[in-house]
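User: Show me a protein chain along with its predicted structure.
Assistant: Here is one chain, sequence first, then structure tokens.
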Amino acid sequence: MKNLLIILLMFSGLWEMQSQNRSESHREKIKELKTAFFTQELNLDKQKAQKFWPIYNEYESELHELRKREHRDLPNLECITEDEAEEMLKEYVIIERQDYVLKEKLFKDLKEIMSSQEIIKLHKLEDEFHKKLIKEYRSRKDRENQE
């Protein structure tokens, strides 16, 4: 019985690791698609791409950290005090300010290598890419539900 429990725990650990690996590979695949999409749509030549991607990747990394803070596990909202809720609201405002500063820095840094029109196009492409991603996600979910 003890051996069976140990084996079950090992398999559950392996299953969790495999799930994390799938999640990581999924993120990497999305990043590759995004890179290809932006490079093509912005007509980035090799020289401009070498300057663009470090700036953009740093922005995305910092934005990801902000989003992790914003979407941390929320407690049961019916069990938090008014003071705790007030602190959460303050944190949300701080995150929004940091998001603004981060985007402002991105635009400033990109201005050194791109025109304002290209930066506006990038902003539009980000929205388009996210819409395509959501559309693909929904269509996959629909296919899974039909099976």
